[in-house]
Design a protein that fits this description.
heterodimer; A: 113 residues; mainly beta; six-stranded mixed sheet; four-stranded antiparallel sheet; 50% strand; B: mainly beta; globular
């Protein structure tokens, strides 16, 4: 079945450091891929998405590229801020199913000033 | 309201009691999802509604769990004879189209359930 695997956290960085959060997936066909973010005390919200191979999703300085050959969708940001501290979830929505999102375990990011 | 609304925001219940959790999706969204978020466990899919029908109930963990949706809008998740392992945050999400692969799902703030 479809699944998503994320790097375990927590990830602790200093402000302005480079961020990578790894995400790999298993799915048949060509799923759509998403990153959701959960800020402290808030609900999940969509950060970015990509719907086909080689697409790059981007938002708020974050980027992720849909890599079919490595079945990956790693999240990157060139210079993190304290306000980026949150839990990040990688997710996929596969073909031929009910449209449910399948999530990874989540990665907690802590950015220190 | 503009977003997905869930109630109550917090619920403490005694083991063995029944609980009902409510979700008000965004107006016009035909697809509705329930997820469970346990500490350190990520998000676990429970059930999916398209309109009032539930084509995918594969994530419901036991027959103590049930859900319904009426009028293509409000949904209720019911947990009977609650157990301590049911303690988690229950999240509801809605989207405009369930089967469109790139459609964004909007999440509510969740209901934190604690079974004591």
């Amino acid at each position: 079945g479809n699944s998503v695997t994320q790097m375990e956290g927590p990830v602790t960085l200093s402000e302005e450091a480079f961020l990578t959060i790894n995400c790999t997936y298993t799915a048949t066909g060509y799923p759509s891929l998403f990153w959701y973010v959960q800020y402290p005390g808030e609900g999940l919200q969509l950060l970015l998405k990509a719907t086909k191979a080689d697409d790059k999703g981007s938002n708020k300085g974050f980027e992720a590229t849909y890599r079919k050959e490595t079945t990956s969708f790693h999240l990157e940001k060139g210079s993190v801020q304290v306000s980026d501290s949150a839990v990040y979830f990688c997710a996929l929505r596969g073909t031929g199913n009910t449209g449910k999102l399948i999530f990874g375990q989540g990665t907690t990011l802590q950015v220190k000033p | 309201g503009a977003g997905v609304s869930q109630s109550p925001s917090n619920k403490v219940t005694e083991k063995g009691k029944d609980v009902e959790l409510r979700c008000d999706p965004i107006s016009g969204h035909t697809a509705l999802y329930w997820y469970r978020q346990s500490l350190g466990q990520g998000l676990e899919f429970l059930i999916y509604f398209q309109g009032n029908s539930a084509p995918d109930k594969s994530g419901l963990p036991s027959d103590r769990f049930s859900a319904e949706r009426t009028g293509g809008s409000v949904s209720t998740l019911t947990i009977q004879r609650t157990q301590q392992e049911d303690s988690a945050v229950y999240l509801c999400a809605s989207s405009l189209l369930g089967q469109a692969m790139n459609t964004e799902a909007f999440f509510g703030q969740g209901t934190r359930l604690t079974v004591v």
